[in-house]
């Protein structure tokens, strides 16, 4: 799949300044926009553009200009993947007069309750939302809590490209100590995504693109990590012992494996204490980091 993807990628523009921005064609009328380690996706139709996370003010200004000048269309929709501010800033610079801004109701609620300095949504939804632009469409789906609040998948048709931010990470280890990760929810959402949607390419908000096989391998890592830490905790091991003893050779080829393996373990350990209260269980002895 990697080889196929390399052929599909077509770098249409590159600007180097303090921050470099890149637009690549993913497939047909769907493109990936990259700002450093952040990605968003947009779709171009003769009825206008559908854009996703603005990422930050500077990136949003650059992308809006690129959509106008290179593709010659107005922005019809801007949809937030979720509430996290490192993906949602700058939305006010990625809208035209006619743009409808869409967010899941829980992402929107978070932005409003926290008084986030973002462009608020015009339209919210609970389960799914579909935007039609001529022969193309984008379906947003919510699978429950997973990472942040109101974090949804976006399915671009007919290109058959999926966009998911933060709860699916392909071609790299999950980030450090899994801040913001609802691991049960990420496993559940990823399983539901695989069961309910066919897609040729998944683009993540970070790291690499991949296909369904890559998503299954990511899911296998999450489950292996979770099960290993849970079993070590049940066996009475401390976090330090787990970090020394737990290795996942079938995933050791993943970028950042050496650097983040111990932090990934700490993230699941923290989840089991904070969310599942392993420190209160009579059958488990938690010897360190109790609270
Ligand atoms: Zn992120």
What does this structure look like?
- The chain folds into two domains: 2-212, 4-Layer Sandwich (Metallo-beta-lactamase, Chain A), CATH 3.60.15; 225-280, no CATH class.
- It has eight helices and 14 strands.
- It has helices at residues 2-8, 57-71, 85-88, 105-113, 183-196, 212-234, 239-245, 257-274, and strands at residues 11-15, 21-27, 30-35, 38-45, 48-51, 75-79, 100-104, 123-125, 128-133, 136-142, 152-157, 161-164, 201-204, 209-210.
- The strands form two sheets. It has an eight-stranded mixed sheet. A six-stranded mixed sheet has the order 9-10-11-12-13-14.
- β6 (75-79), α3 (85-88) and β7 form a beta-alpha-beta unit.
- The site of zinc ion has 7 residues, from α3.
- Zinc ion binds next to α3.
- Residues 1-18 form the signal peptide.
- InterPro entries: Metallo-B-lactamas, RibonucZ/Hydroxyglut_hydro.
- Residues 38-206 form the Metallo-beta-lactamase domain.
SSE map:
Layout: H1 2-8, E1 11-15, E2 21-27, E3 30-35, E4 38-45, E5 48-51, H2 57-71, E6 75-79, H3 85-88, E7 100-104, H4 105-113, E8 123-125, E9 128-133, E10 136-142, E11 152-157, E12 161-164, H5 183-196, E13 201-204, E14 209-210, H6 212-234, H7 239-245, H8 257-274
Parallel strand pairs: 5-6, 6-7, 7-8, 12-13
Antiparallel strand pairs: 1-2, 2-3, 3-4, 4-5, 9-10, 10-11, 11-12, 13-14
The site of zinc ion (ZN) has 7 residues, from α3.
InterPro entries: Metallo-B-lactamas (IPR001279), RibonucZ/Hydroxyglut_hydro (IPR036866)
Organism: Pseudoalteromonas ruthenica
Protein name: Metallo-beta-lactamase
């Amino acid at each position: 799949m990697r080889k196929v993807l390399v052929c599909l990628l077509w770098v249409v523009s590159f600007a180097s300044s303090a921050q470099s921005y890149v637009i690549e064609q993913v497939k047909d009328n769907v493109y990936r926009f990259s700002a450093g380690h952040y990605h968003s996706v947009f779709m171009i139709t003769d009825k206008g553009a559908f854009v996703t996370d603005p990422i930050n003010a500077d990136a949003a200004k650059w992308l809006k200009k690129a959509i106008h000048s290179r593709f010659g269309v107005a922005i019809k929709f801007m949809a937030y993947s979720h509430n996290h501010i490192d993906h949602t800033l700058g939305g006010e610079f990625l809208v035209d007069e006619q743009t409808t801004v869409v967010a899941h109701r829980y992402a929107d609620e978070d932005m409003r309750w926290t008084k986030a300095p973002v462009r608020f949504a015009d339209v919210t939804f609970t389960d799914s939302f579909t935007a039609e632009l001529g022969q193309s469409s984008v379906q947003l789906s919510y699978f429950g809590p997973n990472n942040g609040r109101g974090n949804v998948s976006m399915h671009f048709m007919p290109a058959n490209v999926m966009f998911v931010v933060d709860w699916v990470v392909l071609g790299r280890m999950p980030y450090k100590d899994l801040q913001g990760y609802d691991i049960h929810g990420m496993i559940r959402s990823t399983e539901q995504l695989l069961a309910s949607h066919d897609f040729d390419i998944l683009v993540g908000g970070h790291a690499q693109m991949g296909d369904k096989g890559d998503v299954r391998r990511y899911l296998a890592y999450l489950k292996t990590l979770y099960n290993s830490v849970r079993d070590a905790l049940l066996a009475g091991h401390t976090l330090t012992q787990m970090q020394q003893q737990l290795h996942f050779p079938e995933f050791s080829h993943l970028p950042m494996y050496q650097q983040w393996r111990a932090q990934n373990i700490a993230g699941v350990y923290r989840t089991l204490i904070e969310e599942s209260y392993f420190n209160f269980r009579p059958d488990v002895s938690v010897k360190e980091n109790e609270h």
